[in-house]
Specification:
376 residues, alpha/beta, Rossmann fold, globular
Length: 376
């Protein structure tokens, strides 16, 4: 592929405290494209203490605006960049408020769809912000109707198609995994006591209260059961109070935000990762945990049901069903043979995913968009 000039537009870069799985995904993809000779510029939001310009993963990172202003300043910033430089393609990541780049970009646009909130936004943030996000998403089928869309799961593809985008313009490119980093290690053996892990952004819609409720139910039967909650977010304090209120405070450890080495260690040492979101674009943490030899218990919800193969590398339970979630966690504690079988299945499942493969498929989508734009 001819070296291309790529402008990537996303709310955060991976160093942003508000960054998450979407940012890891984009940096893994476009960092690889930069390493292959493409010139990648990331236009993202700033945060306190961040430089307005830096180099990261082989990409030039330009920061404009902030967490609550980025969507308002990015149109002007993008136009200025396109006046100053030549780009072959603009890539917009749709994982928060749609930025509508096809309306004002002078070059072909490719969308990367992580997920859309839909009505779940009303459980996450109060009005008027929730209404603003919901109404912004209603514009997706009109603004992006001619835009090639790369999505990270079949569930996300179905969601975009249900909103009116042509299925012919949607392509699924699954995420990858760095097996050099995410792997079992004798230096991090499993905890001696039954330990579950919840890792990621701590937001209300993630429904970690369900996991805490299950731990409280299991505690009389397994007094040494423990839940480790790793990650930062705006729902930490309510979760702490909830754990104390139902008598699970002694069984729940809140670690806050952790660095990469600690994250990998937590994956390896846990008996199982638990994810209870009603909807995810994919569930990258599920794949990372399985690559470390840790089974996953997850809600049978969009995105997660693709990141966990039920009965192979983990267990899927009906979302928000406390009884079924408790049963699955009890099964993981009580049946050592089943736990080992799922551990081996998790490792085999994770082996199916590669960032190099994902980057190559993304490059092909970009090249087709560039060629199509020139023909047009």
């Amino acid at each position: 592929m001819t070296p291309r000039r790529i402008l990537l537009v996303n709310w955060n870069d991976r160093t942003n405290p508000w960054g998450g799985g979407a940012e890891i995904h984009l940096h893994e993809l476009f960092g690889r494209l930069a390493a292959r000779g493409h010139r990648v510029t990331l236009l993202c939001s700033g945060y306190p203490g961040a430089d307005s310009r830096t180099e990261l993963d082989g990409m030039e990172v330009l920061r404009v605006g902030g967490r609550y202003t980025y969507n308002f300043v990015v149109p002007g910033a993008l136009r200025r960049l396109q006046r100053e430089r030549e780009f072959d393609v603009v890539v917009e990541a749709l994982n928060k408020i749609p930025l509508c780049t096809p309306v004002y970009s002078r070059t072909p646009v490719v969308g990367i769809g992580h997920h859309l909130f839909g009505t779940t936004i009303f459980r996450e943030v109060p009005p008027p912000m929730s209404l603003y996000v919901y109404l912004s998403e209603l514009a997706v089928p009109w603004v992006y109707r001619d835009t090639p869309m790369e999505v990270i799961s079949a569930s996300t593809a179905d969601d975009f198609a249900a909103r009116g985008l042509s299925p012919d313009r949607i392509r699924v490119v699954y995420v990858g995994i760095d097996r050099d980093q995410y792997r079992p290690s004798p230096e991090d053996p499993k905890e001696s006591a039954p330990t579950f892990l919840a890792l990621g952004r701590v937001r209300r819609y993630k429904r970690l209260d369900l996991v805490i409720d299950a731990v409280a139910r299991l505690a009389p039967e397994f007094p040494d059961v423990r839940l480790v909650v790793a990650g930062s977010g705006n729902w930490l304090d309510p979760l702490r109070k909830h754990a104390e209120r139902i008598g699970a405070g002694d069984h729940v450890v809140f670690e806050g935000r952790v660095d990469e080495s600690r994250k990998v260690s937590l994956y390896r040492r846990a008996w199982a990762l638990v994810m209870t979101s009603p909807k995810e674009g994919w569930g990258l943490t599920c794949l990372e945990a399985q690559a470390c030899g840790t089974p996953v218990i997850a809600s049978d919800s969009p995105g997660l049901r693709e990141a966990v193969r039920h009965g192979q590398g983990g267990l899927l339970v009906p979302h928000a069903d406390r009884e079924e979630l408790t049963t699955a966690m009890r099964r993981m504690i009580a049946d050592e043979g089943e736990r080992e079988r799922l551990r081996q299945g998790a490792l085999a499942f994770a082996d199916e995913f590669s960032w190099d493969r994902a980057a190559a498929e993304t490059a092909a989508i970009l090249e087709a968009a560039i060629a199509g734009g020139r023909r047009a």
